[in-house]
Specification:
Number of helices: 11
Radius of gyration: 38 Å
Distance between the termini: 37 Å
Low-confidence stretches: 68-84, 86-92
Order of helices and strands: HHEHHHHHHEEHHEEH
């Protein structure tokens, strides 16, 4: 014989009656729920009131990468004759897409920006404004920390580790709380850089400085290869030009050194003069090729130079953001009401189990 199933099946009627029973219980505690909601609403109101107004500085710009030299292939062979690479190999992917966005969030760029002087007060760094805004010095003073002695403009060797540790912490905080970098819309190529803080001056100046610093680094990096090529070509051109001038001078000197030459000893004048003339002709030909390649390299640099055009930049007064007090009251009352309901349910269930 099979074992009888002793499990009790709960009917739909019992479920409905249980729900009704719990509903009546919670309704009977309406005074407690109203008090909890009122307390939560008050707490939400004062929480929103205590929050400082945030100022948002927003810069938008469009970026067009320079031509990566695809059209310069016809000149590559000419440049290769003197060992020069015109940079037409398609090295343009270093700051494409998300790479450029991450550059704005990098430690190198944010640190460099923080250590720039404030435009409104050149005696202060942007870092000093950030520290004052977050009241870090008051915290260090309470702990009697040696960080109070750090001079970020001229840091001593004994404080370099502490300085770097602080900057690393500030960079993390800025990335998490103050800085937003991205595209306005995934379908558009317009990039936005947004800085939020409780200090209006810091928001605007940090935004302006960061955009300027990153864009300058971007352009310099993109054109570095072409600039190096131009520098090498310029050096070779100047060197060959000097050799050409020297050969021309040597031919003239050889003639001047033999004013009354014996007709039977023409070698004393002809050999040095012709040797200098041959050297001059060779250098002249080389100089022509170098000058041509120098101009081609300058054209390549112009093609590779990216175009960065600011669409909108922050102006005073900045846009302000502060949560609504009414919203704070509603959210606070709702959360406290939910907590009160959960506590009532847990308390009643515990009593039932114990009884």
């Amino acid at each position: 014989m099979g074992q009888v199933n002793n499990m009790r099946v709960i009917s739909l009627k019992e479920v409905i009656l249980t729900v009704i029973d719990w509903g009546k219980y919670l309704c009977s505690k309406w005074v407690v729920l109203i008090i909890a909601g009122f307390i939560g609403g008050v707490l939400g109101f004062f929480y929103i009131k205590s929050k400082k107004t945030e100022y948002t500085a927003l810069t938008t710009f469009v970026l067009e990468s320079g031509d990566q030299g695809g059209g310069l292939g016809q000149y590559a062979g000419m440049a290769a004759m003197v060992g020069i690479d015109l940079g037409g190999g398609g090295s343009g992917g270093i700051f494409q897409g998300d790479n450029l966005l991450e550059l704005y969030k990098s430690r190198k760029m944010i640190e460099a920006t923080l250590l720039l002087p404030s435009k409104s007060d050149t005696s202060l760094l942007l870092l000093d404004r950030y520290i004052a805004m977050n009241k870090y010095k008051e915290q260090w003073q309470e702990r009697k920390s040696k960080l109070l002695n750090i001079n970020f403009k001229n840091v001593s060797q004994t404080m370099i580790r502490e300085r770097d540790s602080l900057l690393q912490k500030f960079v993390q905080n800025i990335n998490q709380k103050n800085l937003i970098v991205g595209k306005i819309d995934k379908k558009l190529s317009i990039i936005k850089v947004e800085v939020k803080s409780t200090d209006e001056t810091f928001s605007k100046e940090f935004n302006d400085a960061l955009v300027s610093e990153v864009n300058k680094f971007y352009v310099t990096t993109k054109t570095k290869k072409s600039l190096d090529n131009i520098e090498i070509l310029q050096h070779k051109t100047d060197s060959v030009r000097q050799n050409l001038y020297g050969a021309i001078s040597s031919a003239a000197v050889a003639i001047d050194n033999t004013p009354n030459l014996n007709p039977t000893k023409q070698a004393q004048r002809t050999v040095p003069a012709q040797r200098s003339q041959a050297t001059a002709e060779t250098n002249k030909a080389i100089l022509g090729h170098l000058l041509q390649n120098l101009e081609l390299s300058k054209m390549a640099m112009l093609k590779e130079s990216p175009l960065i055009q600011i669409v909108d930049n922050p102006i005073y007064p900045l846009r302000t953001e502060k949560p609504s007090k009414i919203k704070g009251v509603l959210v606070g009352g709702f959360i406290s009401g939910i907590i009160a309901i959960l506590l009532l349910i847990i308390t009643r269930a515990y009593k039932k189990v114990m009884n």
